[in-house]
Amino acid sequence: MSQLKRDFDAKFRNEAYRCRFRLPLNERLDGEIGCHLWTLYNRSSIAGKLYISSNFICFSSKVYRQVNLIIPFRDIIIVEKHTNNSNISDFDIQSALVITIKYEGGPFVLSNFTDRSFILGKLSSLLSEYNEKIISIIDLPPITISPPLYLQFNNNFTEEQQAYENIRIAAWHTHFAIYGRGSAMYRTNELYELLFQGIPNSLRNELWLLFSGAIYDKEVNLNIYRKYVYESSNVKNDHDTINEEIERDLYRALPDQEAYQQESGINALRRLLRVYACYNTDVGYCQAMNILGGVLLLYMNEEDAFWTLAALCERLLPDYYNTKVVGALIDQGVFSDYCKEYIPELYDKLEHLGIAACISLSWFLTLFVCVMPFESVLYVIDIFFYD
């Protein structure tokens, strides 16, 4: 096998790994091995693969969506051999490892390794050498982070809507009690089905940050948002043109939402977009980012919305938000091919009118925000971040 092919294969495996588990762009897969995960919630041994990288241990079941698990190294206390004094008989104790974490959840039991000693040595070595680079900026004056805008606007539920929201909240908390909460929660079919009922407004900040993987970027970049708030307020010249573009688009973001009919909402969106343009000068500002940023600010605090917008532009929708929108055009082409194959009559009509390519580009760039009822769009975004 040529070196070039090996390099391409390694790159493909890294990208597939990061995409599957929503991990940062700099994460590199070290290796993978077949094993079983003992799941406490149903006392079963699930066959799958263990993935090890520089900052994470991940597990994915052989059966699609049966269970996924993501454990950041920073959360691990110890990895050790399983003791023989367990009354559990459904897995091979002689080949089992136990991962204990700092927070509620776990311990996680992995078994059926072909060489437990090698895996234990590998994980112990990585943990002993683990030194995640956390960028922390100090000596910056404090700033006021705006809370989710829905708390101030658009929270006038009818009695029936509030009752349904309370049912959803109760269902999610029941799920957390069984499957865990936070980074190391069991991500199961049950979670996927629950997503189709929608995430309650009060949990969207937490779960959008988690499911998008933005939480991992935020945790290693302490106070970076605060730094760029100050830089964006002081930078002139190079950013004047970008700021003018942002100003033109602010009031076009979500005009039907009460939050963006008020200056407090517009100011929060302005700051978010200016900070991101200063943070990522390669992207700067692109049309449709105002709409996505507007949706994020409705349900997330300002800093979490920033990291989630960064995850969208840099990982989840690569090459969408630049002058050439290459990523969106590629997806648009795939969509066009599907339309031609499965709904040929409609495709031919749109093609004849010359608008087949025009109408769908904004769908992809805005995650359908502009073409669907807003409540329906929230369901789409809930599932998009997870899947």
Task: Please explain how this structure is put together.
It is a single chain. By secondary structure, the chain is of the alpha+beta class. It folds into two domains: 3-132, PH-domain like, CATH 2.30.29.30; 149-322 and 373-386, Helicase, Ruva Protein, domain 3. Helix content is 50%, strand content 14%. It has 15 helices and ten strands. It has helices spanning 3-21, 116-129, 159-179, 189-195, 201-211, 214-219, 224-234, 240-250, 263-279, 289-299, 302-316, 326-342, 344-353, 356-365, 374-386; strands at residues 29-39, 44-53, 56-61, 67-72, 76-81, 97-101, 108-111, 135-136, 187-188, 221-222. The strands form two sheets. It has an eight-stranded antiparallel β-sheet with strand order 5-6-7-1-2-3-4-9. It has a two-stranded parallel sheet with strand order 8-10. Strand 1 (29-39) and strand 2 form a beta hairpin. Helix 9 crosses helix 10 (289-299), helix 9 (263-279) crosses helix 11 (302-316) and helix 12 (326-342) packs across helix 14. It is globular and about 65 Å long.
